[in-house]
Design brief:
The structure is a single chain. The chain is mostly helical and 131 residues long. Among the domains are: 1-30; 31-51 and 62-96, no CATH class. Helix content is 70%, strand content 0%. The longest helix has 26 residues, at 65-90. The relative contact order is 0.19. It is found in: Endosome membrane; Golgi apparatus membrane. It is a multi-pass membrane protein. Pfam families: Vps55.
Length: 131
């Protein structure tokens, strides 16, 4: 029951994040769809974690080199997702208001992704591996 409520809350927050992203692109005042390239970062963000989980050893060590490398790559992906709209606004490909909406959407989406892994990534009876 709690997992279903968490899944509903995560899907709601994901929808809010994508709404911010779409508002930054589709409002008539902004009207440029370049910020949609951050969707690529949303999709590749969990990939280092999946690879580290699959490749890394199953020991209960506090940290491993594989996991730390996955954190490093994930951090690079997240920073790049925040940097892309700022660069696009600096070269005047998009307006600064659109940049703000995309940054707000990024914050919500990445917090949603983090929330998903915190709720379903524990490896207990109900985990994301079942999905």
């Amino acid at each position: 029951r709690c997992a279903v409520a968490a899944l509903v809350a995560l899907s709601f927050s994901g929808a809010i994040g994508v709404t911010f992203l779409m508002l930054g692109c589709a409002l008539e005042y902004y009207g440029v769809y370049w910020p949609l390239f951050v969707l690529i970062f949303y999709f590749i963000c969990p990939i280092p974690h999946f690879i580290a989980k699959r490749v890394g050893d199953d020991s209960d060590a506090a940290s491993s080199a594989c996991r730390e490398l996955a954190y490093f790559f994930t951090t690079g992906i997240v920073v790049s997702a925040f940097g892309l709209p700022i660069i696009l606004a600096r070269v005047e490909a998009i307006k600064w208001g659109a940049c703000g909406l995309v940054l707000a959407g990024n914050a919500v989406i990445f917090l949603t992704i983090l929330g998903f892994f915190l709720v379903f990534g524990r490896g207990d009876d109900f985990s994301w591996e079942q999905w």
